[in-house]
Amino acid sequence: MPNGRTHTLINTIVVSSVTAVAERLGVPLGDPVVVAFLAGTVIGTVFITPDLDMARVRTDARRAWGPFELLWWPLLKVSRHRGVSHTYLRGPLIRIVYLAFMLGLFFLSVRVGWRLTGLPWTVGNWSRSLPGG
Q1: Beta carbons of 85 and 53 less than 8 angstroms apart
Q2: Is 129 left (phi over 0), alpha (psi -120 to 50) or beta?
Q3: Taking the model in full, what pTM does it have?
Q4: Contact 90, 68 (CB under 8 A)
C-alpha cells in the first residue's frame, strides 16, 4: 500500500486532471458538481485522511489541522491504523460522523457558555436571541 505522500500525489493528479477535462469540455468550474467534487477531494486529501489514526506518527493530515490536531486525539485512542478507518465506506463515514460530533460538542459548549454569561447574542450589525430561550 502506498504511503500518505503517494496518496496525496495521486489525489493531486486526479484533481488537476478532472479540472483540466472539465474546463476542456466547457463545464464551468463554478458548477456545483465540479465544486463539490474538487472541494471534497481537497478536504479529503489534506484534512480528513485515513492516516489521522496513526498514533505514533505525526502525519501531514494531523499537521494540517494545526492547533486543532488535538481534536483527533480521542479517535487515535480507539482506532488502530489500517483498521476500519481504511475501508472504503465505513472509514470516511466514521471520520465525518466523529468530526460532526466533536463540532457539535464545541458549538453546544459555546451556546451553554454564552447563556451562562447572560449577555445578548449579537454578531455584526444584527442581534438575535438564541433559539429555545
Answers
A1: yes
A2: beta
A3: 0.65
A4: no
Query: CA quadruple 50, 54, 60, 65: dihedral positive or negative?
Result: positive
Q: How far is residue 80's CA from residue 50's CA, in Å, rounded to a whole number?
A: 11
Nearest to 60 by CA among 12, 2, 5: 5
Whether the Cβ atoms of residue 41 and residue 10 lie closer than 8 Å to each other: no
Cα-to-chain-centroid distance, residue 75: 14
Phi/psi zone of residue 38: left (φ > 0), alpha (ψ -120 to 50 degrees), beta?
alpha
- What's at 123, amino acid-wise? V
Instruction: Give me the tens of pLDDT residue by residue for the chain, a chain 133 residues long.
Output: 667 788 788 888 988 998 899 889 998 888 888 889 889 888 888 888 877 777 777 788 888 989 988 888 888 777 777 777 777 788 888 888 988 999 999 999 998 998 898 887 766 555 555 555 4
| Contacts for 9-13: CB closer than 8 Å, 24+ residues apart | 11/41, 11/44, 11/45, 12/45
- Strand pairing class (126-127; 122-123): antiparallel
C-alpha span between 130 and 120 (Å, rounded): 8
